[in-house]
Amino acid sequence: MRVLIVEDEVRQAAALARGLEAEGFAVDVAGNGTDGLWMATENAYDAIVLDVMLPGMNGYRVCAELRARDVWTPILMLTAKDGEYDEAEALDTGADDFLSKPFSYVVLVAHLRALMRRGSPQRPAALVAGGLTLDIAEHSCRRDGVAVELTPREFAILEYLMRRAGEAVPKRNIVDHVWDSAYEGHDNVVEVHVSSLRRKVGPDAIETVRGGGYRVGGRVG
Prior knowledge:
By secondary structure, this protein is of the alpha/beta class. It folds into 2 domains: 2-118, Rossmann fold (3-Layer(aba) Sandwich); 126-216, Winged helix-like DNA-binding domain superfamily/Winged helix DNA-binding domain (Arc Repressor Mutant, subunit A, Orthogonal Bundle), CATH 1.10.10. It is 40% helix and 21% strand. It has 8 helices and 11 strands. It has helices spanning 10-22, 33-42, 59-68, 84-92, 105-118, 152-162, 171-178, 189-201; strands spanning 2-6, 26-30, 47-51, 75-79, 97-100, 126-129, 132-135, 140-143, 146-148, 206-209, 213-216. The strands form 3 sheets. Strands 2-1-3-4-5 form a 5-stranded parallel sheet, sandwiched between helices. α4 (84-92) links the parallel β4 and β5. The mean pLDDT is 85.
């Protein structure tokens, strides 16, 4: 298994490389974001360990650029920062997993092996269906090229439907995936948000399926 480490702290990078090599991995190291981007684009890796704080180009930008170039190698992002917003930004730019420094080396290896088992299925940077374009990283929506402002809840519902374009999605499924586990209200809350969505993206964009919920037509791509 071949791994790319993108880390500017020389001692940290060397320690990671030695440890992974001892576990049987083949390891390449890049000391800055620019070199890391080039190496990840030019070579085939089974996984990338990517630090956030890098000279030249930070880890978020490297990750976003790789995904924009259709490089879907699994990415484990490392950061010295701690907090849900840093984790959210890492995942929103296309990372597959996230660890804060300091971390357990055993846990790092376990995360890498899990990423490799899952592989790297293609995940489009934008969802396209029924005249709608949803950019996940930028958290933006367009209808026939025109920008549409959505609330976070509306965006989440539309993303869930567009990831299942062509399928009839029951309201209960939408509630289970968009609301947290503490929500105990009625499924009809979905109707309120879908009604608002239709006013914004067009009444024909989201189809009501009798007894089945809602459906966004077209394909995901």
